[in-house]
Write a structure and sequence with these properties.
Structural class: alpha/beta
Organism: Prolemur simus
Helix content: 40-55%
InterPro entries: Aromatic_deC, PyrdxlP-dep_de-COase, PyrdxlP-dep_Trfase, PyrdxlP-dep_Trfase_major, Pyridoxal-P_BS
Family: Belongs to the group II decarboxylase family.
Strand content: 5-15%
Largest sheet: 7 strands, mixed
Number of strands: 7
Oligomer: single chain
Protein name: Aromatic-L-amino-acid decarboxylase
Subunit structure: Homodimer.
Length: 338
């Protein structure tokens, strides 16, 4: 495909997308297919010769669309909202064309700096504490993750690194393995399953704290669990508070959980993936009271804010720790590939 054909096919694709969005309410929301429906309909191996653009579009309608769940349909009420908009689609086209990999400032200065500034914009819209903003001299700042699941894992790994270094500084004879086997993390029994997965991937114990009558984490139960674990020689180090659980949109009380985390020197991560966008509205901002006790905060603009998946905004008041972890993960990934 040369640039001339790209211009022509691009216009055709824009028309197809616009027609899809305009007629989405007439499509069946949930597909009437059985698991495995797709494999018999497509070749077992990749074709040796390319198909025409027209054939590909026809296959999309005949083979792919019958198996699509139309999340943007006005009749879709499952899970949670997912956002999209024409400006976001155009921005995706430009991002795909530039194709930079922004894993460091040198790799693409504009990519890195634009992300930093835009995350400050978004943080100010949410009225996050100044400590979470990068600004010109700030220690905090935001980065875009792929999902809230990734954000929770990154926060847990950062907390694990922080407590390991602190304990080794006080007792150099301690090995990372000896510390890790005693680490304990906590979350409400209403927390998303990704929190449990983060604990498994991070190699630490995760305990579910009972919720109260409003399906919020019971702070007294958290305190009791922490004291019990400390008495058993374990090391409480990480707590996930959820603002807007996926199951029932319940909210943990940050004003109760936050001071306890600070007192016990536990990293507090706020998972506001579902409801976080609402905090931009002044009438809902009080639901975020207590964020000043947190070490990291995350929500998903791709749920309510008309941004295409995947865009999960995460802030930390200790950006240096997050950057070190990001560098360590990148180097480790390169070593594995080598």
């Amino acid at each position: 495909m040369n640039s001339s054909e790209f211009r022509r096919r691009g216009k055709e694709m824009v028309d197809y997308v616009a027609n899809y969005m305009e007629g989405i309410e007439s499509r069946q929301v949930y597909p009437d297919v059985e698991p495995g429906y797709l494999r018999p309909l497509i070749p077992a191996t990749a074709p040796q010769e390319p198909d025409t653009f027209e054939d590909i579009i026809n296959d999309i309608e005949k083979i792919i669309m019958p198996g699509v769940t139309h999340w943007h349909s006005p009749y879709f009420f499952a899970y949670f909202p997912t956002a999209s908009s024409y400006p976001a689609m155009l921005a995706d086209m430009l991002c795909g064309a530039i194709g930079c990999i922004g894993f460091s400032w040198a790799a693409s200065p504009a990519c890195t700096e634009l992300e930093t500034v835009m995350m400050d914009w978004l943080g100010k819209m949410l009225q996050l504490p100044e400590a979470f903003l990068a600004g010109n001299q700030g220690k905090g700042g935001g980065v875009i993750q792929g999902s809230a699941s990734e954000a929770t894992l990154v926060a847990l790994l950062a907390a694990r690194t922080k407590v390991t270094r602190r304990l080794q500084a006080a007792s150099p004879e301690l090995t990372p393995a000896a510390i890790m086997e005693k680490l304990v993390a906590y979350a409400s029994d209403q927390a998303h399953s990704s929190v449990e997965r983060a604990g498994l991937i991070g190699g630490v114990k995760l305990k579910a704290i009972p919720s109260d009558g409003n399906y919020a984490m019971c702070a007294s139960a958290l305190q009791e669990a922490v004291q019990k674990d400390k008495a058993a020689g374990l090391i409480p180090f990480f707590v996930v508070a959820t603002l807007g659980t996926t199951s029932c949109c319940s909210f943990d009380n940050l004003l109760e959980v936050g001071p306890l985390c600070n007192k016990e020197d536990m990293w507090l991560h706020i998972d506001a993936a579902y409801a976080g966008s609402a905090f931009i509205c002044p009438e809902f901002r009080p639901l975020l009271h207590g964020v000043e006790f947190a070490d990291s905060f995350n929500f998903n603009p791709h749920k309510w804010l008309l941004v295409n998946f995947d865009c999960s905004a995460m802030w930390s008041r200790q950006q240096v720790q997050m950057l070190r972890l990001k560098k360590t993960c990148f180097v480790s990934d390169m070593v594995r590939k080598i």
